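Q&A log
Question type: sequence-to-structure
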Amino acid sequence: MTHPTDIPRDPGAVALPATLHAALRLAEEGLPVLALRADKSPMGNCRACRNNVCGGRPNMKSPGPCTCPAPCHAWAAATTDPSILTSAAWAPAWRQAAAVAYHPGGAGFTVVDLDNADAVGWARRNLPATRTVATTRGEHWIYLGTMASPNAVRPGVDIKSTMSYARWLGPGTGTMAPLPDVVRALAVKEPTATRRASSPVTVPAPPGGGQCPHRSPAYLERGIAMAEQRIEAAPDGIHRTVYRMFLAVLSAHGRCGCLTEAHIKRLFTAAQGKGESLRHCEDAWTNAIAALGM
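Response status: OK
Response body:
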């Protein structure tokens, strides 16, 4: 990561927007880049998505339900391909862009975003020294390695890595250190006392009666364990993730009678560990059963 410098160009060529000029240089150096509005939210990169009319969600960590041929929002659209960056589809975004951002996870980095002086002081006391970049209110500490991107892991501290983006504010100073365990641990939220005491399962297991697809008990165990892991690893959209995992488990394992209340309790415990209430768990389970016609 070095600061963008002027790219030699034909004096007779049409001038590039300053943001695109910078983005192309960063892309040459391996940083997947995207355009930002003045409010730091990503811009839709094609005419069809202008002003977010396609239904995408550029302020979130998912590109949203966009009907374009390829993702054109936020981290999912970040690219190092100059032919895409300079395409006619992306031209309106660069003409209006106020800044450039990059996808840290796509470049193999993790940014610890320290939003104020107190957060910076905490980092200096607790985190290994690494490359730092000054921001408007604090600092970005950049490590080599990727992880999930949870926000508010402690007061004034966000993580920006996979499925996230960070504003480009210059190359910073210092040598980039490997991503340490102390930073990875920030993404592991200790459950509250309320969440530790998981509520009893109040929904019945499906009655079954259909053909059993399980080649061995391990097949069902892997399905439950995978659903637990997906729920526990979800950085946001927890209710949506819980519903989808309940739906997947019921679809694969709910028709033969092998799914027990013990399995359901494991799923509910994982969901409640991410903050879902018992009522929301019950609603998601009931809706999944209804969606499958069970």
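Response note: The chain has a mean pLDDT of 79.
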